[in-house]
User: Fold these one by one.
Assistant:
Number 1:
Amino acid sequence: MNGPMDPVDRALVEAVRRDRDQILERLSELVAVPSLTGTEEDIQELIAARMAADGLDVQRLAPDPTTVETDPDWPGSEVERSSLPIVAGSLGGGRPGPRLLLVGHVDVVPPGDLGTWATDPFDPIVRDDDLYGRGACDMKGGLVSAWAAVRALAATVPASDRCGEVVLLSVPSEEDGGQGALAAIRAGFTGDACIIPEPTRLDIVTVHAGAITFQLTVPGRAAHASVRREGVSALDVLNVLLTALREDEGRRNSAETQPLMRALGLPYPTIIGTVAGGDWASTVMDRVVVEGRYGVRAGTTASEAESELRDVIAHACEADPWLRDHPATLEITGGRFSSGQIAPEHDLPTSLADAAGAVRGRRPALIGVPYGADMRLFLNEGATPTVCFGPGDIRLAHSANERVPLDEVVECAAILAVWLRRRLHAA
């Protein structure tokens, strides 16, 4: 069923569009909960209650974070946490047929300087058909799209006309690595296909980069400012390493051959995000500590990227007279995002593009993106074909005045509903 919409497809689309007010209400309700990474308990309580009210079979998991951390594929963490709440709502569980996952994360990053926001980040407001608030784009809008799709499917297509199972999975901890998704996978939440409605402007992500975060400690030698030549400024030494990192960035990006990643121009950026050093204005700086982000190339893991980064720093230290005897130290910290990819011709992106084309009158583009996502965990650890496809523009994620177009939230839900029905159609 990959052609134009039939009457049931059209009924699904109309059901979603009639549901617009409830979609807005639910999205507003979720955005109003300040579910910062590490504090997802309240929003998961709300989601579990709402799923149950919608008639889904709800399952709640509370794995011990310290146990998850012992997993050999643990993807890192950037916050202290005492819980890892996971909620799953299923429709049609136990029936023969495919198991389809719709997965969204509920954690959001801090809003930053509130003075840069035109509205309260946790008091959602609609302007020009965009809903504003922290997490609206990344990715509560997408989670609500998936939820509305499941609701439309349950209300429009009789159980006798459906086979298999749909699982709406709500996970924490994506922003700092993805241990919520990994814990869900270890608990058995895998399937025949998975869609993660991250913000893609309704294009289909078939390949994404990854990233690792690092801390680099650079030594110098202290001296009085009046005799600065007696010292070695750690800041000057840092410049040696920054030059090496810039040259490495150029080599890695220019060598990329994957067309969708190459089209991004700079798919694997390296940045320094924080710099700390010095303790007296008239003393030559004897130590600088910087933190940064290093891109993980498509087709490689976070561990392989770490090896590449260590080689860059080691070679730079060996080539510099000061660093040769006083090498910088490198520590990998925070989230460890490997890359992920699925073949563009795979049935998942193909069937999703068919559904989108039928609903919208044009097929979405297949794209690559320069950031990490839970997609790679379901692909690599869960052996589940996975893509990202959702409403919103990633350029607005993590920003002041974050927002998502309500029209895209609704259209995404309609497309997902049609895709689900076609994959679960009981012949």
Number 2:
Amino acid sequence: MPAVYKRVLLKLSGEALMGSQNYGIDTAVAKTVAGEIRGVHELGVELAIVVGGGNIFRGVSESAGNMDRAAADYIGMLATVMNAVVLQDALEQINVHTRVMSAIEIPQLAEPFIRRRAIRHLEKQRVVIFAAGTGNPYFTTDSAAALRALEIKADVILKGTKVDGIYTADPMKVPDAVRFDRISYQEVLEKQLKVMDSSAISLCMDNDLPIMVFNMRTGGNIARAVSGDLSIGTLVGG
């Protein structure tokens, strides 16, 4: 199927790179994800990625203990840089030109985030991976995804998860939970559905940026998402 979106932002959780492990990065999974991304890239789609760091460290988790929240969040940002470099390596091994752009300056590993440069990379058909969140504590990588998507004028956010869309309740805990095909931003906020954090949802709502939530673990789903196949998940807004 041809792509219906010209420029997309793919939000990947750090857990997407963890595989069946309890912690860290499974390089075999990273290679699989890279192959999926290459398939989308070959459709001519301009693709940016925001990757989380929850497989290594999460600022609001028990692993942070009683650390200062800002310090813990900065450590989480560094975890996203690690994931971004792993994903970049996996992509470049299969000949997909990639740039990592970090909100925290780490010149040995990544370019600094400069909006116009990011857009130029996309126009040159390079995959751009945004690391280190927004560069600020107290903001999640969901918020970073919404912010970067708006900055690069993406057509949609693709949110890859471990379930096939948004349900009335957690389908892992409630077997008869019902999946939404479409849902409004307001409903997501009112029902407190755990799609993205409320700041990210509000930012998308204020700027009419749709979010497609789908199962990342099903092969070919990223390509189906950019082709506008709503059977694989839930569209928020749009």
Number 3:
Amino acid sequence: MKRILAVLVILAVAVGSVFAGSKPETASIVLAQNKPEIDDVLKAYAAGWAERTGNNVTIKSCGGDSCELSVQLRADYAAGEMPDIFVINGIESYKEWEAIIADLSDQPWVSETSVAFKVDGKVVGQPVAVEGWGMAYNADMLAKAGVDPATLVDLDGYKAAFAKIDSMKAQLGIDSVVSMAASIGMGWVTADHNFNSLLANGLPYGDLSVVNALQAGNVDMDRLNQYADWVELLFKYADPAVLLTGDYDAQVGAFANQKAAFLHQGNWVDPNMAAANATFKMAFAPHGSLSTPTDGIFVAAPTWYVVNSESPNADVAKQFLNDLVFTSQGNDFIVNKAGSIPPFANIELSPSGQLSQSVQKWAAAGKIYSWDQYSFKDDWRIQVLRPIYNQFASGDVTKAEFVKLMADAFKNYKNF
């Protein structure tokens, strides 16, 4: 009997060894994200991860001036093709998909970050990065023009700097003072990022007083009028071609190729700067949306990866996210390939991009303002705000009309 049992044990071990040594069944997941500027490097990382794990990953990028991720996700859901991992940008985005967003509270990466997306005590989103923006400037060009970046803290400082640089365009070899986009397709530059100047500039981090007032239809007309002056200034000194019809590459390229002294974008353009071999000195200055000085830029986790709880491969999706945080390849992708500021304490790498380094300096000094634009519904920003900015940029409405359209939009927000 003992010999029979011994044989059975040996057979069981042998069979187990055969199965353990065989190639595991391959799973396939889809990740949908909204940063086309990292599409190539994310696909390259996903391909390497697939080789290492035996699980296939398809990357779908929807953003920039090509498409709206929120719209694409709705189409995917209707078609029964919802991604296994997708991106949300804030509470309104979360509310739309909360029925299928998995609880990630038990994931190993949670203890390594302070900027996870949390709802009712649950962790539901992994931060993609830490990002920031102010007004990016060509420090070498400003020095040549005799403009001190320390003066770029309010409306008057920017008015003086823009006027001086504009008078020296031929000498500086530039087409415009600022590279700014305001087409409908690039409306996230205006109705997301520039809009946040109205909401958060000059306020304590996380202060939602302006947001709450506007959503209730209570408009601080003095703050709104100052903001309109800021928007007018940017539009006035932009290249009309880039402003009205330029795509992402045209807007970012004008700055990278030293055809504009300023750029209205964030540190996510560092890979574009590297690709263009833009080696001039650059950094961020605060937005000048107020008549009073401000001393900070906008810094936060911009988006979060969430896992589709209805996915049959949810565990594989979670593994993909953990490997971003805990493998050398994942760390290399986040920092070196994507050029991002890592949102995880265990990652010791630092980005080499000058704009990312500028964000880190502002953050280290505690001089940061929050991102509050995503407190407003995506569809409202897209359908209501973007056309208002576009009409102002194209000259179809005056500044006074822009102010009225904005005020009316806030008064009607609760009915949207």
